[in-house]
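Hi there. Long-time user, first ticket. I'm pasting a complex I've been working with (about 542 residues overall). I'd like to know whether the download I got is complete or cut off, because the file seemed smaller than I expected. Thanks.
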Amino acid sequence: MGHLFMSKNQSAAPYDPVSAPFIHLNDVSLRYGESGEGVEALKRLSLDISRGEFTAVVGPSGCGKSTLMRLLSGLTPCSSGKVCIDGKQVNQPLKTVGMAFQNSALLPWRTALENVLLPLEVVEPYRRDFRRDKARFVERARALLARVGLSGAEDLYGWELSGGMQQRVSLCRALIHEPEILLLDEPFGALDAFTREELWDILQQLWLDRGFTAMLVTHDLPEAVYLADSVHVISERPGYVVHTSHIDLPRPRTPELCFTSRFTDYVHELRKHIQRKALAVGGVGL
Amino acid sequence: MNKKTATMLYRLSPWLATLGFFLVWEISCRLFSIPVFVLPAPTDALAALIKHIDGIWFNAQHTLLTTVCGFAVAIGFGLLLGILVGASPAMYRALNPLLVGFNSVPKVALVPILVLWFGIGTVPAIITAFLVAFFPITVNVATGIATMEPELRDVLRSLGAGRIAILTKVGLPRSLPYFFASLKVAITLAFVGAVISETVASNVGIGYLMMNASAMFQVPLVFAALLVTAAMGVVMYGITALLERRYAGWAMRKRH
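Hi, the file is complete. Here it is re-exported in full:
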C-alpha cells in the first residue's frame, strides 16, 4: 500500500519522508449523526503540520476546533477525506498521542503522582513492564512533576490542588509516555491571567526540550501567537481553514514579547480574519 | 456555651438522641398508663429481653447469619449486574424495564412461592434478603459507571485503552462511592427481607420469635426482639460505613 502511494508521488516529485508533512489532513469533512443527517462540523478542511511543529487552531466558539482534535487523535472518524499521521491513515485511537482538556480530568481517587502514572499503566510497551519497572516509572513521573514546579505536591489529591496545579498535572499525564503528538483543547481556558502566562512558559519549555508535535486549540489569540509556529483560523461551522499565520518570533518567547508591535500585529491580523467571517455571516460578533 | 462543650455535644449527639427517644417513650407509657399489651415501656421490653436472653440470642444469631448470607449474595450478584448494565448502554436499555418491574413486586408476596420451592426454613429467608437487597446495589453501581465523564473516557481511549481497561481504571474506582452508599441501604433492607420471611414461613429466627410471642400476647418480648433487630441493623450499618470510609474515602473531603 505504501509502495503504491510512493510511486504515485514519484511521478510528480520524488517522495521525501523528511519533508512530507507529519500530519496531513486532506479535504476532511465530518457530519455528526448516523446517516450524515446531523450537524456538519467540518467541511473540506485541509491542513498540514510538520514534525515537531507547534500549531494553534483558533476560531469562533462552536466552529469545530475540538472536533478537529478528536479527528487527529482518532477518537472520531471523519465522514470523508483523509487524516494521515506519519504516512499512515488514522482510523482508530492512536497510542502516540497525549491529550489535555480545559477540565483537567484528573482521577479524583488518585494522587497527582498516580494520575501521572496512568498512561504508563495503559500504553504498551510500558504496560507490560509496569510492575517490574514501577520504581523507575515513579522516578520519571516525579522528575516530570518537578519539571513543572510541582515537587512536594505528588501525594496530594486533585481537589487539594489549585486550578493551575491541576492543569500542570494534566500536562504531565499527557506527556509521561513521551507521545509524538500533544493535543491540547483549551487547556488554560479556565485559569486566571497570571497562572495562564506561567503555564505558557512551562509548556513552551517542555516543547523546546522534548520536540514533540503540538496542536493547541484555543480562543485566546495572544496565547496562540505566544506559543505557536503557525496559527490556523477556522471559520464558523462547518469549519474550514480561513487563514494561516506563520509566527516568526524568536524562541524562547518571553512575556515582554507580548508588548512588542510585532506580537500585537500578529494578534490583530488573526482577529481581523475571525471578525470578517463573523460579519459576513451576519452574526452578532463572536 | 464554649467551644469545648459544643464539640462534646456534637460527638455525643447520636447517643443523646437515642437516649432521649427511649426516655420519651418510657415517660409517655407511664404518664398515660398505657397497658403493656398495647405498648410496653422500654424497661418492660428490657426486662423481657433479660428474661428470655437465651432464646433471643439463639434466634438473633440465626437471623444475623441469614441476613449476612443473603447480603453477600446480593453484593456479588448486584455488583456483577450493575457492572454489566452500567458498562453497556444496550444492556441498560434492554434490562431496565425488567429490573424496575421486578423491584416493584412486593417481596413478601414471593415468600409463599419460595416456600413452595424450598420448604419452610432458612433458604427462603436468605433468598428474600437477597432479593430485597440487590436492587439498590445494581442501580448504584450502574449509575457510577454510566455517569463517567466523557473527558476521562477520551483520555483513556486516546491512550489506546479498550473497554476492559477503561472499566478497571476509571469505571470501577469511580463507582466505589456509589457502591458503598448502596451497601448501607442494602444491609438494612436485607434485615427487613430476612425478618419478613421468618415471620411468614420459618421455625427459627427473630421473625419467627416475634410471630410466636405476639400470638401468645407476650408484647414486651415482641418489642425486645424488635430492639435486638434494630441494634443488629445499626451495627451492620456501622460496619459498611467503616468500609466505605476505608475504601472510598477520597470521595469524602475532609471537613476542615
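A couple of notes from our side: The domain at 53-77+87-281 of chain A is CATH 3.40.50.300 (Rossmann fold). The two ends of chain A are 45 Å apart (CA to CA).
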